[in-house]
UniProtKB/TrEMBL annotation:
Pfam families per record: Sugar_tr
GO cellular component terms, A-Z: plasma membrane
Organism of origin: Nocardiopsis composta
Highest taxon, organism lineage: Bacteria
Protein name stated in the entry: Putative proline/betaine transporter
Family: Belongs to the major facilitator superfamily. Metabolite:H+ Symporter (MHS) family (TC 2.A.1.6) family.
């Protein structure tokens, strides 16, 4: 049994020749600040895909068609993210977590700033959406490498019995980034008219990313390498080709991790991107809210997302990842039954409650993922494996979610959107039932079969 003293240091720490250890505060700040910036960049695009891009980057015509085209460019990032996870995962497992995290942050940030500088369709024609798609691909490439590194930074520096709690630090970047991105848009749309906003105001959130990148780089360059990677490096157990190695030794973990993430992604993008589009579309094809009041309702829901994320980590540390996530996934499935009737009720109070319930469940299911996915893989391929599973889950669960939900709502109504969420939750539930519990696994040990 581990002693109390052993619980106060990260795995791999405590020995006389132990590598420098990042303090708890530094781990929290570095993992939280980085993912907050990355998710800010990602969600700035998601909001603009609803409010701006259909009007400025695509030819005039059918409004629904323009929105669907905009959502198609939104999906490009999810195609790019697995490639980013493979690229950055290779270097994260070969040269270390720290340098790779810096590179992923720069990739994401530069792509975001460039979007803020792009001319529209009226200026350069069809080249405009092509450049937009290219920059969106860059965003996805950067985020593909970001999450895995941030999750490993947190969990590989954590005491074993607090790994799920530490793993929620990068997860909190999602609600914080969403709140910042949409808060900026809310401030802009509340203080300028539509003409000024569409002319130049929409660019401000993208250009602000440059300031945030500098802050993120400053924080991350002060980090030490994680103890688990340093130990593997000193013992000569670094994989020469991590991408090939992870598929050779951990294919089952990649598949299970991907499917475990599906419901999380579908739930989030239905309750944010799709709900924003549907909520602000005119009746009868939408709820008919104006942008500002609906965004305020959404931000209220995101507060609950943030509050429940660390709660889920604490519970998963006490009871285990698998039973907690099984219970939450069943709750998501039940939420899919009531989501459509609540959103289509005509009651603002019920719509608000629907957003709160959905985003509370999002916090509960997203929180433990920061520990669960890294725990599925050995140290020498952990960056690659966790990143690939996380981002393949995004490709399967999120890339088409806003597009598919928009089409389902238009063709069949909101009950079909709820059915889409139910089907996604069923997939994740099946994967969780097949998965093993990982709470008591060591992040330092590399099984002989994985070398």
């Amino acid at each position: 049994m581990a002693t109390h003293a052993a619980e106060e240091v990260p795995e791999g720490g405590g020995a006389a020749d132990a590598p420098p250890v990042n303090g708890k505060g530094r781990v929290i700040v570095a993992s939280l600040v980085g993912t907050s910036i990355e998710f800010y960049d990602f969600y700035v695009y998601a909001t603009a895909a609803v409010l701006v891009f259909p009007h400025l980057f695509f030819p005039e015509g059918d409004a629904t068609a323009a929105t669907l085209q905009s959502f198609a460019t939104f999906a490009i990032a999810f195609i790019a993210r697995p490639f980013g996870s493979m690229l950055f995962g290779h270097f994260g497992d070969r040269i270390g977590r720290k340098a790779t995290l810096v590179a992923s942050l720069l990739t994401m940030g530069v792509s975001t700033v460039l979007i803020g500088l792009l001319p529209g369709y009226a200026q350069i024609g069809v080249v405009a959406p092509l450049l937009l798609a290219l920059c969106r691909f860059g965003q996805g490439l950067g985020l593909g490498g970001e999450w895995g590194g941030a999750a490993l930074l947190a969990t590989e520096n954590a005491p074993r019995r607090k790994r799920a709690l530490y793993g929620t630090f990068p997860q909190l970047g999602a609600p914080i980034g969403f709140f910042l991105a949409n808060g900026v848009f809310l401030a802009l749309t509340s203080t300028m008219d539509d003409g000024a906003f569409l002319s130049w105001g929409w660019r401000i959130p993208f250009l602000l990313s440059a300031v945030m990148i500098v802050i993120g780089l400053w924080v991350r360059l002060k980090l030490h390498e994680t103890p688990a990677f340093t130990k593997a490096q000193k013992s000569g157990q670094i994989a020469r080709l991590p991408l090939l190695q992870v598929f050779k030794t951990s294919t089952g973990a990649i598949v299970l991790g991907t499917l475990i993430m599906v419901a999380t992604y579908v739930l989030f993008y239905l309750t944010t991107v799709f709900s924003m589009s549907y909520g602000t579309s005119p009746e009868p094809g939408g709820l008919g809210y104006s942008y500002t009041p609906f965004l305020v309702m959404l931000l209220v829901g995101v507060v609950f997302f943030g509050l429940f994320t660390p709660v889920a980590g604490l519970v998963a540390d006490r009871y285990g990842r698998r039973p907690v996530l099984i219970a939450i996934t069943v709750a998501i499935l039940l939420f899919g039954v009531v989501m459509g009737p609540m959103m289509d009720s005509g009651s603002t109070a019920l719509v608000q409650l629907c957003l709160i319930l959905g985003l509370s469940l999002m916090g509960l299911t997203f929180g433990p993922m920061g520990a669960l996915l890294p725990e599925l893989f050995p140290t020498n391929v952990r960056y690659s494996g966790a990143s690939i599973a996380y981002n393949m889950g995004g490709l399967v669960g999120a890339s088409l979610a806003p597009y598919a939900a928009t089409w389902l709502a238009a063709e069949y109504g909101l009950w079909a959107v709820g059915g889409y969420l139910i089907a996604s939750a069923a997939v994740t539930l099946a994967a969780l039932l097949l998965a093993r519990e990982t709470r008591d696994d060591s992040l330092d040990e590399i099984p002989a079969s994985a070398r």
